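Hi all, long-time lurker, first post. I run a small reading group and we've been trying to get comfortable going from sequence to structure in the token notation. Rather than ask abstract questions, I figured I'd post a concrete chain and ask someone more experienced to write out its structure so we can walk through it together at our next meeting. Sequence below, copied exactly:
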Amino acid sequence: MPPDKRVLRQYGREVSRLRHEEDLTQTALGHRVGAGKSHISDIERGQAVPSARVRAELDKEIGHGRLERLWDELTGSGREAWRYEITELTHQANALYEYQSLVFPVYLQTENYARALIRYGAPWLSADEVSGRAEDRAKQAHHMTDGVTPIIWLVVDQTILWRRYGSGTIQREQLEHVANLVERDRLTVQMVPADSPRHPGNNGPFRVITANDGPEVVYVESAHKGQIVTSTEHVSRYRMWFAALQGIAVGPDETLEALKEQIKGLEHG
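-- Answer (accepted) --
Happy to help. Here is the structure in token form:
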């Protein structure tokens, strides 16, 4: 059964991105991989299924392992295809309103923090697979935070500041990264105190995604799958949950001070 159109579009966009990174025309890339310009164009637009030979050559010339890994993820169980769809929605958004209780969102993670999360969260992966995924995640995060959109408003549990994924040094680096983004006005963070008796965040993490050219949607992730919520009624409920979380969270300035206190403690710890 051939891959669905979503898979082909996502793979094609990555081929196009990597080709531009290498400063190659479609004609030049076609010569390298033994394909015509029109076929490369069709692949990039998601209009053609690349053969195993062409995929291998594309990965050799511009992917350096990334394209083969992406193809495997997109055509595997479907979980990673879902992740790439969410990544696209997130990066093209006008604004994000997110709540997290255990870790910082993937688009804010440093490479070392991401590596620790992947390594211990997926112990079946090889060291090379862990490093590859961490590098990809860090590149996506760098692209996200270097831009001016989307506007990001994040509410986190205070315990996120205390966790030591990988090591204290890795956690300090992650907190410094978040604090720097806050001070640059790229991100607004509010913290829900760990001892809050009226915590409305027991429904788990979620992300409200606002776009200029479409309705708001919500992304909800569990350990085994993700779900996009499009119902206006249910999206409005998540909006209410986010407002409730903001209502019991401390303000952005106090949250920044808490970040700095944790950073200082880790420097001397």
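A couple of things your group might point at:
DSSP finds twelve helices and six strands in the chain.
The radius of gyration is 20 Å.
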